[in-house]
Structure formats: structure tokens, C-alpha cells
What we know:
By secondary structure, the protein is an alpha/beta fold. The chain folds into two domains: 2-136, translation initiation factor eif-2b, domain 1 (Four Helix Bundle (Hemerythrin (Met), subunit A)); 137-342, Translation initiation factor eif-2b, domain 2 (Rossmann fold), CATH 3.40.50.10470. It is built from eleven helices and 17 strands. The protein has helices at residues 34-42, 49-66, 73-84, 91-107, 113-143, 169-178, 195-207, 219-225, 250-260, 291-294, 335-342, and strands at 2-3, 7-9, 14-17, 28-31, 149-154, 182-188, 210-214, 230-233, 237-239, 244-247, 263-267, 273-274, 295-296, 299-300, 313-316, 323-326, 329-331. It has a seven-stranded mixed sheet. Strands 1-2-3-4 form a four-stranded antiparallel sheet.
Amino acid sequence: MISTIxxxxxxKSLELIDQRKLPLxxxxxxxxxxxxxxxxxxxxxxxxxPAIGASAAFGYVLGAIENRSNLTLIAMKEVKxxxxxxxxxxxxxxxxxxxxxxxxxxxxxxxxENEVIEILKIEAEKIAEExxxxxxxxGNFGQELFSNDAxxxxxxxxxxxxxxxxxxAVGVIHAAxxxxxxxxxxxxxxxxxxxxxxxxxxxxxxxxxxxxLICDNMAGWVMKTRKVxxxxxxxDRIAANGDTANxxxxxxxxxxxxxxxxxxxxxxxxxxxxxxxxxxxxxPIEERSHDEVTQIRGVKIAPENVKVYNPAFDVTxxxxxxxxxxxxxxxxxxxTESISKVFK
Length: 344
């Protein structure tokens, strides 16, 4: 069984904190079907690459339960496809589904339906438990990059809410605090979905971090006029050469950081690294609803019929990233070599 702030799994249903309503309302959505989980991923009830992956794994189990009387390869391929088509950029989604489907392929011809479902439950729980352990290991490696009194800028949300628990980029901050270090964080609001303002600021305040919220377009001025040691972000997919897809605006931050001598750190599990993709040009970039740009919580802020471009992610070139923090250590440029070594 799994019980964290992000998700709760009791073997029969998955409860997900509705991240669309935070920080004002803490409310859970209970999913007893794979359709519900697919909707939760697509509609960003749950978000963050590791959290999406774990949710999809539990969604796959629910799909198996739904098909208990007809647990065939065709049925589970349909469940996998339904979950895989929810969001295109976060590679953890596909990694978790491949792992679950591979486990099903090992079992379905030799085990009865109940045995298959029970083993799939165990596999999904392993994915969730491993995520928590991986994040803590990443945090311990990453905190070594911070001085005893460091100032960082965060972008989007890469905390406990983006994972099963603890977080990737925020997990590094968490670990630094656990090691007695003092961290001040400038939190980009992260338009248009405001994950920084709504989620990261909320999480950091709960951790006791000295937190200052800024608009995205203030980050450059903050780097120029205040002491900033590092940008710390998560990732949704990293190519074999280290090009990193993360929330839109990360690329701009990295360019400005290079100008001001500010380090750029990416914290991501190895499951986020897609070695099948040579460089960032091959990473699919999700474009989301235009309403996210023209409205804020249902209130229109733009003229009717204005054209909108709303890519959810951008790709930061590998040479702009000073380190990629993983559960197996800190990788350095050139990433083609360091990533290759860690996967051997």
C-alpha cells in the first residue's frame, strides 16, 4: 500500500491530490478505473514526470482488474495505449507502462487472472516505492553541490507533488536542509499553469525554506542584482546527449544563467533519460489548451479570437546544463559520455 501527499493506493483504487486546486483546497480524486486515471493524467490532476509514471502503473493495474473476466493481451494493449496517449513529453509515463506491460507478458499465459493481478499490484507498488528511494538518493548527491548558505531559483514544480514523494529538484533542497544547510529560494510562478506559485511555494514553505515568489520575467533581474548560486529544476525527458525537456521557460532561464555565471542543475531519475533519443530535437513537445494562456481560473485576461501558442515544455541545450543529478551520482558535460557510462 502507498500513502503520501501525492497519491494513496489501497490495492483497489488510486486517490490523487487534485493539484489544480492547490494551494487553496486540498482535495483528493478517487479513481477506481483506468479511464479515471487517464483523465487525471491528461487533465493535470496529477502532474510531474515521476508521479505520472507511478499513476499510470496503478492505472494499468486497474485496467487489469476491469478486464479480470477477459484478461487478454489485446485487452491490456488497449489499456496501455489509453494511458500512453494522455501526455506525450514525460518519458516516465512510457517507461512505467512498458515495465508493467512487460510484467504482464511474463505472466498472462501461465498464471490465472487473480494471480496476474496480484503480481501486477506488487510491480506497481515497487515502482512507487523505488521512486521515493531514488529521490532521496538524488537529494543526497545533489545537496553536495550547494554551499551552507545557498540561494537558488526554482521553475515549475519538482517537489513531492511531482513524484510519489520527496521530490527531485525540491528533494535536493530538502536534503540540503536535512544536512543543516540554509537555503533561500526564489520561486518562478511558472506561467501559464502557475505550478511554481501554487505548488512549489506551498511545498517549500511547508519545509521551512526562506521562499520568495517572483514572476517568470523577473528571474533575469534577480540574477543580475541578487546573489544567486544556482537554478535547480526537474525534467520530463532527457536525450542521450543531455538536452533536457522541462517546463516552458527553463531554456530562457538557462540562457540568462549562463550570462550571469549562475549554475544550472537538473535533478531527474535515470528513468527520465531516454537513450533512444539522440538529441532534444527528437523530443515531442506537448501543446496544451489555449485557455491556459487566455484565462486564469476561468477569468478571461486576453481579447477574444487572439492567436495563442502554448507549448508546455521547451528543450535546454546540454551545454547550458552544469550537472544532471541522478540516483547514481552527478553527471557532467559532455553528457553523451557520462550518460553512456551510467547506463552500462
